[in-house]
Amino acid sequence: MIEFQISKNNQDVLNMLNTKYFIVPDNNKQPVAQFNPVACGNAWFVKEIKMVADADAELKSLDKFSPKETVFIDKRFEDYLKGFNMQFDSSATINLTDYKANYLSYQSNSATEQFAVLSEVYYPKGWNAYLDGKLVEHVRVNYVLRGMRVPAGNHKIEFKFEPATYYTGEKIAFASSATLILLFVSVMVMEIRKTLKA
Question: Measured between alpha carbons, how far is 126 from 30 in angstroms, rounded to an integer?
């Protein structure tokens, strides 16, 4: 068995990033993969939310924490938590059911409203969250990840990459293609008329 030493602080951050393996040297100094049995997984519900002053404080909070228990949220997102009453349900589940480059799907089940941490990088410019097909908000947590409120019951949670620039580009490409087709058809019609007149 290979022993790999890593500080507790770094371990917590790597766990929240769902790091499943470490590449470490074996006894012959050759790289081998070592499984991380305490990686947090793709998504989980936390027991405690801690608001912090800003992004710097959010990052600093990661020096010492338990990612499965606590989540840190920048104060600028505090409006998102208005009316949220934390009642942790130990039997609640949230599981990743589909994963593509531009689409993720999760299934959740809980007796009470929960707060989910999703081990994916928060990037608001293009990524939209949906709860049972309805567009909903999500926020940045632990400085780099996604987090969102999840109501009680069974729910389908989806994240879709839908940047406005992509759809603008698609519309321009469609318009350009349609214009080229119309030009081609017009030229063909003119050529056929010329042939018929001759």
Answer: 41
Cα atoms in the Cβ-side hemisphere of radius 13 Å centred on 100: 8
Helix (H) or strand (E) holding 22: strand 21-25
Token duo for residue 90: 């130990």
Pairing verdict, β 31-35 and 21-25: antiparallel
In the numeric block, which tokens belong to residue 2?
A: 């290979």
pLDDT tens by residue, 61-85: 999 899 999 999 999 999 999 999 8
- What's the CA gap between 96 and 40, in Å, rounded? 13
Sheet of 134-136: strand order equals: 93-100, 103-110, 153-161, 127-131, 134-136
Nearest to 92 by CA among 113, 117, 72, 118: 113
Strands of the sheet containing 145-150, edge to edge, are: 43-45, 114-121, 145-150, 139-141
pLDDT in the model for residue 198:
64
d(CA 145, CA 141): 5
Task: State the Rg of the chain over Cα.
Answer: 25
> Per-residue pLDDT tens for 132-147?
999 999 999 999 999 9
Length of the chain: 198
The residue with tokens 């710097």 is 56
